[in-house]
Amino acid sequence: NLPADVRKCWRTVSDAASAAATTTVKGQAPPNAEGALGLTDGLKCFDDLIKAEPDNVAALTTQGLVFTALGQGIFYDRAVDRLNAALKVDSNEPTALLLLAGIANARENPTQAIELLDRFDRVGARPSGLLPPDVTAEAIRGVAEAQLKAGSGATTSAVGTPSSATTTTAG
């Protein structure tokens, strides 16, 4: 149940993603995934909404989800920024905790992933229905535990940022 303003931004992003998945006709140039398909408009919609309402947890978390779905690198950095901002407003936001745990795994920081999942478990609330069905606490915990067994257990001050001491700034 997204608020109407967040749902509008989500719809713009979702429509762009659907268009990107459309097969092109032979000889037709493939679509530009960010510009021509409206992804930029969807991200700007979120940016404008968050600028007007910086404490809008639904907007922060949903844009964090979009950035997480876009992939690694700068998109993960932007996702972490938005998700941490959501946790500053609501330290028990389950979707932000779950997504940050997944990013911690992707950045080979299973220790932080498990810390975030433990917080998620204590919250006991369901995450957003927008998450793909395979994004579950159980799946993320399984990856983190496998990474720990393999010997990857970096400490960080924020998701993916190396530090000399283990502290979590996710909220």
Short characterization:
The protein is mainly α and 171 residues long. The protein has helices spanning 4-21, 39-52, 57-70, 74-89, 94-106, 110-123, 137-150; strands at residues 156-158, 161-162. Strand 1 and strand 2 form a beta hairpin.
Q: Would you tell me the overall average pLDDT?
A: 81
Which blocks of ≥5 consecutive residues have pLDDT under 50?
A: 160-171
Strand order of the largest sheet: 1-2
Largest sheet: 2 strands, antiparallel
| Helix share, percent | 55-70%
Q: Quick one: overall form?
A: globular
The number of strands is 2
Distance N terminus to C terminus? 24 Å
Content-based structural category: mainly alpha
From the alpha carbons, calculate the radius of gyration and give it in angstroms: 17 Å
Tally of DSSP helical segments: 7
How would you describe what is shown here?
- The protein has 171 residues and is mainly alpha-helical.
- It is built from seven helices and two strands.
- A two-stranded antiparallel sheet has the order 1-2.
- Strand 1 and strand 2 (161-162) form a beta hairpin.
- The model is unreliable at 160-171 (pLDDT under 50).
Task: Please render the helix and strand layout as text.
Layout (H helix, E strand, L loop, with lengths): L3 H18 L17 H14 L4 H14 L3 H16 L4 H13 L3 H14 L13 H14 L5 E3 L2 E2 L9
Antiparallel strand pairs: 1-2
Helix pairs in contact: 1-2, 1-3, 2-3, 3-4, 3-5, 4-5, 5-6, 5-7, 6-7
Salient structural properties:
171 residues; mainly alpha; two-stranded antiparallel sheet; 7 helices; disordered C terminus
